[in-house]
Amino acid sequence: MTSAVATLLSILDLETLEKNLFRGRSPQDGWQRVFGGQVIGQSLVAASRTVDSDKLAHSLHCYFMRPGDPKVPIIYEVDTLRDGRSFVTRQVKAIQHGKAIFTMSASFHKQEEGLNHQMEMPDIPAPEDLPSEADTIEAYMAKAPDNIKAYFRRERPIELRPVNMEHYTTDKKHDPLQYVWVRTTSTLPDDPAIHKCALAYASDMTLLDTSLFAHGRSVFNKDVSAASLDHAMWFHADFRADEWLLYSQDSPWAGGARGINRGSLFRRDGTLVATAVQEGLIRISNR
Hints:
Porin; globular; 287 residues; 18% helix; alpha+beta
C-alpha cells in the first residue's frame, strides 16, 4: 500500500467521540485549506457509521460554507433524520472553531430490483493506451508553472490519467469537457462503504476545472480564485475505487462568477456507477 493511500484510509477512519459525534484530522501537507473531497469523504464516513450495514449510500448533497483549517481537527455531528425500512436519511455538520464549515445530507437505501437503463460510456482510449501519470507529468513539467509542478509531483492517493492535459500549460480555449481515468494508487479494503467514501473524495479533484476550459484557464492560474460551493453525488452500481473508473466531465454553464460541472463515472465494462454535479466559484481577478 502506498503511503498516500495509507494516509487517505487514516483520515477516513474517524475517531468516535460520542454517539453520532466524530472527529477527523487532515494530512499536514502544507495546504492552506482543507481539500473539499476530504470533508465530503469524512462526512460520508460519519453518516455511514450510524446506519445498518444492509443499507448503502445512494445520494449525498453538500454545501461548503467556510474554508477548512488543516491545522485543527474537524468535528462531525450526525443528525439521524429518518430511519425507514427501505431508506435512511442523515444530516452531517462539519464544525471548526465553533462554526459550521460544511453540511451534507445523505440518503441510504436497502437494495431493491427495478427498471434499468443508463447512458452510454464515451468511446475514449483505455488507461493502458495513455501515458502513465509519471510519464505525463514529466512530459508537461518543463513548460509548466511551479505551482502545477508542485501539485503533480507530490505523492497522492488518487492516480489520474487525463486524456489531455494541454489546458494546464497553455491559454488555448477548449470545449468545456474532459475525460480522466481515476483510481486509488493501491488496493483498498473490501468494505463497499470505504470505496464510496474514496470515490466521493476523488470526485472533487478535477470537476471544478472543467468550467474553466472554455476560457483558456485552469484552477492553477494566478488570476483565478476557485472553490467548491456545493457538491451532489448519486451512486448507481457496485464498483471498486482501486480499479480504473472513467470520469467523464462537462460544464453546461458558467456565469456570475460561478460554474456548473457534471461528471459521470463508469466502470471499464461500461457500467455507469455514479454521477456527480458541482457548482463552483470561479472568480477572476483584474491584477
